[in-house]
Amino acid sequence: MEALLGLANWSTLLVCMVIKLPQLVAVLAARSARGVSLESLVLELSGFLVFLRYQSYYSYPLETYLEYPILIAQDVILLLFVLHYSGNMKQALPYIVIFVGGWYFLTLQKWIIDLAMNLCTLISAASKFAQLRCLWQTRDSGQVSALTWSMSAYTCATRIVTTVMTTNDLMVLVRFIIMLVLNIWVTATILRYRKTEKTD
């Protein structure tokens, strides 16, 4: 069991170190953020920040959430590129202020972090639905990376295993199950519209 836990933790960390690279490369290569939902990205980043703050607040084992600072850093970089290529760099400062302020606000009272964690699953699910809506509306996967989304599905699957084996926190477990299903759905939708793009 320890070997499985170690494999799940380390493979998750390794995948998360490069998880946003395919998306970043696609946006940079095209010099366009076409198909990448800004709303989805902001919601995802919010969910990551809440989840990291919750895990650290309750002193969960570091190896069960070590990837979140890496994911947050990559999301911030991706957010800046999306803002740049969509001509909205002026929005960067307000986002930074809100995210930094929110980080400190979350732990002012225990009930705030608990409520935020309860809402975290909804926030993260909303981020996936925002990307799905963007794909459905445009019927074009544009610069959206199926590899990034499939790696997200993989990390959710490994985190289901690590959560069951370590903290057994039901809120965290439910979050990862829902995110796994939604990440697979987004990946399938990206591939569907990419395939449509090539056959036309």
Short description:
80% of the residues lie in helices and 0% in strands. The chain is an all-alpha fold and 200 residues long.
What does this structure look like?
The chain is built from eight helices and no strands. By secondary structure, the protein is mainly alpha-helical. The termini are far apart. It has helices at 2-18, 21-30, 38-57, 67-85, 92-105, 110-138, 146-165, 170-199. The mean pLDDT is 91. It is globular and about 40 Å long.
Set down the secondary structure blueprint.
Layout: H1 2-18, H2 21-30, H3 38-57, H4 67-85, H5 92-105, H6 110-138, H7 146-165, H8 170-199
Number of strand segments? 0
Secondary-structure content class = mainly alpha
Radius of gyration over C-alpha positions, nearest whole angstrom: 17 Å
Percentage beta strand: under 5%
The profile of the biggest β sheet is: none
C-alpha end-to-end distance = 49 Å
Quick check: average pLDDT?
91
